[in-house]
């Protein structure tokens, strides 16, 4: 058993046991009922740990808030996401998903296991009387998907107000494309604003042999697509990170009938609010060509997660902690990319930071793939960063001028 200031640290074997159980039993966003029960089972009765769950206590039916300490300040937060994805697993692992068409393909099972280990360790510190503050550890549901109201789990938890007294918050995300012993961490934007859109291009349709008698929405689509794809490179500066992708096109049902409409769905990703607004404005402006060519359109743009912003002071503190804890660990000053992450809702209200933990498996895979897996050894380092990060956040707020 390893020790942290006299406290018991959870072994890697236990982290693996937790992770593999969760991996076998994945559940989709807002449906993490068994996952919630399992988390409660693993934490029930720990000294100094209060558990809260349910819509009345945390604002959403699933998920758990584990509060370690006696409620005295400083109060800081740790967060892990617990939901899985609608993907059919193809890893061949002995602990492969038992739920058809559902898979932990984003590492949330590992995130949950690391936070379980952190709660156990912090409870041990509480028993020793060396936890000089309170740590709110959120096992958050529904990071991957929004509900019918267009909200994710983070938004419901924030609206409930259970983190209003949290002074700083930390999270991590496994990175299967980064080797073990490397970490991506930088201040400022590290993941993107997420906008999604649905565009229906409307024509009149008709016989495929007589296109001149129709307003062909497929032809209109072919005119619009080059404009849409050109927006990031022609309407924003080259140094402004941005992506526009068309991810679905549907229209028509026959080889000799021109349809009356074509539907396109896609996403726009940006880092700055200015770029976010600009691309939506240009999208709307360019679609006027559809009207000029005799068609019409219906456009719906949904504004999802904001960009994930790492607080500069907290980011520097975590980097210093990592270098002291693991001198051989390489910290790379780099963002994670253009993906979205609803932890960003927390960092808009609470000083926060997310780091990206190298966990590349032997068979290299990426997030959200049926073959996704990661090197489980990374979880031990991740758990230690969560524990030491919480302690250092408390210490900095107790003694702002100290180390």
From TrEMBL:
Pfam family name, one: M20_dimer
Taxonomic superkingdom: Bacteria
Span of domain Peptidase M20 dimerisation: 195-284
Xref: InterPro entries: Amidohydrolase (IPR017439), Bact_exopeptidase_dim_dom (IPR036264), Peptidase_M20 (IPR002933), Peptidase_M20_dimer (IPR011650)
Signal peptide start-end: none
NCBIfam families documented for this protein: amidohydrolases
Protein name per the record: M20 family metallopeptidase
Source organism of this protein record: Halalkalibacter alkalisediminis
């Amino acid at each position: 058993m390893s020790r942290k200031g006299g406290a018991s640290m959870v072994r890697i074997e236990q982290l693996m046991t937790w992770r593999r159980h969760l991996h076998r039993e994945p559940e989709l966003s807002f449906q993490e009922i068994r996952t919630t029960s399992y988390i409660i089972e693993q934490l029930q009765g720990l000294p100094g740990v209060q558990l809260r769950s349910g819509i009345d206590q945390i604002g959403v039916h699933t998920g758990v808030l584990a509060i370690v300490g006696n409620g005295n300040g400083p109060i800081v937060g740790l967060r892990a996401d617990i939901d899985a994805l609608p993907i059919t697993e193809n890893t061949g692992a002995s602990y492969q998903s038992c739920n058809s068409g559902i898979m932990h393909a984003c590492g949330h099972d590992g995130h949950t296991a690391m936070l379980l280990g952190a709660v156990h360790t912090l409870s041990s510190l509480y028993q020793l009387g060396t936890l000089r503050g309170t740590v709110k550890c959120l096992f958050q549901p529904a990071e991957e998907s929004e509900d019918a109201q267009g909200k994710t789990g983070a938004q419901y938890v924030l609206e409930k107000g259970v983190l209003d007294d949290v002074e700083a918050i930390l999270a991590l995300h496994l990175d299967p494309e980064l080797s073990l012993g490397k970490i991506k961490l930088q201040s400022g934007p590290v993941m993107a604003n997420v906008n999604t859109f649905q565009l229906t291009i409307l024509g009149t349709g008709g016989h495929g042999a007589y296109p001149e008698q129709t307003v062909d929405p497929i032809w209109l689509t072919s005119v619009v697509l080059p404009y849409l794809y050109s927006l990031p490179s022609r309407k924003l500066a080259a140094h402004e990170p941005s992506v526009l992708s068309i991810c679905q096109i549907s229209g028509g049902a026959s080889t000799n009938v021109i349809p009356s409409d074509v539907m396109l769905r896609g996403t726009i990703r940006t880092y700055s609010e200015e770029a976010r607004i600009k691309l939506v404005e240009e999208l709307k402006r360019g679609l006027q060509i559809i009207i000029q060519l005799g068609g019409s359109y219906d456009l719906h743009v949904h504004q999802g997660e904001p960009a994930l912003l790492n607080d500069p002071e907290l980011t520097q503190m975590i980097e210093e902690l990592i270098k002291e804890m693991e001198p051989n660990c390489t910290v790379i000053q780099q963002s994670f990319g253009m993906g979205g992450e609803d932890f960003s809702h927390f960092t808009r209200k609470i000083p926060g930071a997310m780091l990206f933990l190298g966990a590349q498996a032997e068979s290299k895979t990426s997030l959200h793939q049926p073959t996704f897996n990661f090197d489980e050894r990374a979880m031990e380092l991740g758990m230690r960063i969560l524990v030491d990060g919480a302690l250092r956040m408390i210490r900095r707020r107790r003694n702002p001028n100290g180390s």
